[in-house]
Amino acid sequence: MKKVFKLFLCLxxxxxxxGFGDFSEKKSTHFIIYYKDIPEDFLDDVLEYSxxxxxxxxxxxxxxxxxxxxxxxxxxxxxxxxxxTYEKEMNQPAWAGGSASYVDKTIWTFPQESGFFDTLLPxxxxxxxxxxxxxxxxxxxxxxxxxxxxxxxxxxxxxxEKHVLSAMSEGAFIPFKELMEINGLTLRSRDDVxxxxxxxxxxxxxxxxxxxxxxxxxxxxxxxxGKTFDNAISYAYFYIRNxxxxxxxxxxxxxxxxxxxxxxxx
Length: 266
Known about the structure:
By secondary structure, the protein is an alpha/beta fold. Helix content is 61%, strand content 8%. It is built from 12 helices and 5 strands.
């Protein structure tokens, strides 16, 4: 499966350069946009928002020493002229608004009327920034990557805890132990995808708000060094020895929040 995935990425990358014809390009400090028939003001907005999200993510998550995307190593954003062209050239399903490869630091998408600048763009940038920071580590749970990718989506992050608390009160909550075992393949077959993403966002927000960005940065640095999830988290967080401790602490935090919420309703 891993070899097939790598082959797909390589083929996609080669197709970009040799199968789509000529793209125009526009550059900023950390990004290069490749585009066809896209209005100039839209391109300017994409670069402005991309740089803003880059700065915000590296600052809020403690990646202050992260400064790898310059000159020829800038991240790439391919913007097709419309949804139909994107689906055809990238062989993507109709519901897909974009895709990304952290191996190549590349995003593929198309102009969209809603959700492009406040959802899709920050989410995909979050994916490739996070993987640039921690590397292609095999022991990283999916919730951690998805939680980071959603961290810049402010509206979703603010609403995540409310959604998680509702799931907990209604018996739809996904226990942390089960959350740790969910991967990309199993996630597709679940009916509680929205709960999953809300919990992923809640967990990352909990780690940052409770223990600070420096601890989160140390945690990610240890993952990049090849440490297991448990070893990395025990190094970065004094009171958390392993994933079980993290799960217990986070779930208790949510239960306490739920009790306060219930008292306020009464």
